[in-house]
What does this fold into?
Amino acid sequence: MDKIKVGVVGVGYLGQFHAEKYAKMEGVELVGVVDSDLSRAREIAKRHHTQPFFHHSDLYDKVQAVSIAVPTPSHHSIAKDFFLHGIDILLEKPIAKTLEETDELIGLAESKELVLQVGHLERFNGALVATEGMVQDPVFIESHRLGPFSGRETDVDVVIDLMIHDIDILLCLTKAEVRKIHATGLPVLTPYADFANARIEFENGCVASLTASRVSKDKTRRTRIFQPDGTLTIDYLTQKAFWTKKAASSGKREPSGIVTEEIPVTKVDALESEIYSFLRSVKHREKVRVSGRDGKKALKVAFQILEKIEEDMRKKKGWHN
It folds into this structure.
């Protein structure tokens, strides 16, 4: 059977890992990598025994599918070019810089019946996958995505950089419309919000609190889901999940407390799982796990949170004045 011919556009921090995964996969041919930094393109191409290219147009007649891991402002123009040439796309998050750009990409993919998968990596995390079907009528959801400053994402706020992962998961879990958002944030080491908290109320009554920080000492990636029948804890770093519930009565008038059970989890390489999922969609024309419309929903809520943060910062500035 013919191999799926793929390329990677943008081989910086994230893109290099896409190239690494493709290069090792059976049934896949990594035709080449593209980067505007010529030395970087050559370095990654040499590492994975493929060809370096210096403009994404060099791949048009050579590949069936691409991963795009360039800076967000270039997502729309590059993805559009590939769609116009009939090529399937795995597009790193966030899907685009604006909702208008997002709509155009979704429209192109759907009209041409092409694959558009958005790189919300945590959807493929073993701990989250193991808990599928366990979330029933959540009352409150809290997520913490914290870590030290890496110095990589200095041109974007922490909502788009980190919190958007938890926004995507939250929307997937609640399956409800957003009713109200309160948010606060502050810049610490960049001109943008490096810390942010958002309280989101949904039409079905569920409330969520999302906290993201890239200026914290310790790294944390955790979600807790409170339901009438118990609490689900998902740890994305350790890929562990736990179910906490009221213990059965011991025969006395008062319950004996609570019990916590670890949920069996098959630990995975989330990026590898994400790419395998994308390639299955390319090969079999299957529905993707994280669609362009999913990417748009997460981006829309992220923008709403940013608006609330800006409002909050203007108020605080007014108070200080």
About this structure: The longest helix spans residues 292-320. DSSP finds eight helices and 14 strands in the chain. The chain has two domains: 4-114, 123-267+302-313.
